[in-house]
Amino acid sequence: MAGIEQRSIGIVMNGVTGRMGYRQHLLRSILAIREQGGLRLADGAVLLPEPILVGRSEAKLASIAKDHGIDRWTTDLDEALALPDTEIYFDAQVTSARADAIKKAIAAGKHIYTEKPTAEHTEGALELARLARDAGVKAGVVQDKLFLPGLRKLKRLVDGGFFGQILSVRGEFGYWVFEGDWQEAQRPSWNYRAEDGGGIIVDMFCHWRYVLEEIFAGVRTVQCQGATHIPRRVDEAGRSYPATADDAAYGIFELDGGIIAQVNSSWATRVFRDELVEFQVDGTEGSAVAGLRRCRVQHRAMTPKPVWNPDLPAGEDFRAQWQEVPDNEQFDNGFKVQWELFLKHVVLGEEFPWDFLAGARGVQLAELGLRAWRAGRRLDVPDLKL
Ligand SMILES: NC(=O)c1ccc[n+]([C@@H]2O[C@H](COP(=O)([O-])OP(=O)(O)OC[C@H]3O[C@@H](n4cnc5c(N)ncnc54)[C@H](O)[C@@H]3O)[C@@H](O)[C@H]2O)c1
């Protein structure tokens, strides 16, 4: 690339031995950006991210570094943060370890990009937002679902006025997570222990906040019924442990404009859907069903008129009466797309709306969901300010 200016940016990546840190952030984002030759910036330069891996296990870090030709890794976060050529700290650790590490990185003057939830409680999430603001560092939080092809197409329908007045949103997220006894669990055991920052409400309500607000409208109230359907599980070491956290949540949210959103989240359900998450949106002019990748619609004019008659077998193939929304664009990995936007935000000051206040709003909805469940009440969702 003769004549093209190349810039490097050092990124301290903590938690890359974990599921998300390794697969989505290291492999599918940072290394993918390197493999494509870097990130082309608006000023013509090319930005090359330089990861410095941080974690607890030397052996795991060394093995990842070797597999991917990465020369810098350490088990000492302070050492990594002291490196002069690192500008960004990224965190994909377990949720409970996040806030302390981010505080250190802010104190070291790094820009921060992090997995959600930013903290376990709203107050902690707001504190991080204030610290980042006061230190003058840029801060971003992963909101990957916004970049899913299915939800991008859904947003396109909303923006294009397809629905008329939107009446309701019904979300179904989940799959069976094995208990760990006769088949290994496909999620880490801390997810099922409240004392370790686990629980599906903390995990998923952060996502539902930004999905509902960015695609539809602000969330005004929350009702939530949680459950721990599977009371005992078996951990990575084969030990049986009590599941102290919720593994399913049945939430109802009132949105601005009177839209009712109902979202089920469960690690104790078997999938009879086309995708692991699906949202059905019903509006006066039409309806849509969007998943991770697909989005299908039924317009008002194409709506069949079923008549309730249990004496007869279903005479129509209801699924066949929907139309596929075309892609009309190329979709890249959502984590990578958001990383690229954050990198441009850091080096060129380009817009990046998913900051730590947005992160705190996600944590707030999770916390209110837990409180609403415990109290058996519908709770208002007040505006959050720094
Ligand atoms: N954006 C998303 O869709 C999404 C999906 C799943 C998880 N997450 C978030 O990503 C984070 C990591 O989740 P994961 O599923 O990759 O978890 P994981 O258990 O696979 O990885 C956790 C990482 O944290 C490190 N760690 C640091 N301190 C630890 C401790 N005390 N105990 C255990 N591990 C510790 C581990 O070494 C590992 O690298 C969580 O905050 C989670 O909420 C986000």
UniProtKB/TrEMBL annotation:
InterPro entries tied to this protein: Gfo/Idh/MocA-like_OxRdtase_N, Gfo/Idh/MocA_oxidrdct_glycsds, GFO_IDH_MocA-like_dom, NAD(P)-bd_dom_sf
Signal peptide range in chain numbering: none
Oxidoreductase recorded as keyword: yes
UniProt keyword annotations, A-Z: Oxidoreductase
GO function term, MF aspect, one: oxidoreductase activity
Domain GFO/IDH/MocA-like oxidoreductase: 152-288
Residues in Gfo/Idh/MocA-like oxidoreductase N-terminal domain copies: 53-141
Pfam family, one: GFO_IDH_MocA
Name of the protein in question: Oxidoreductase
Annotated source species: Amycolatopsis albispora
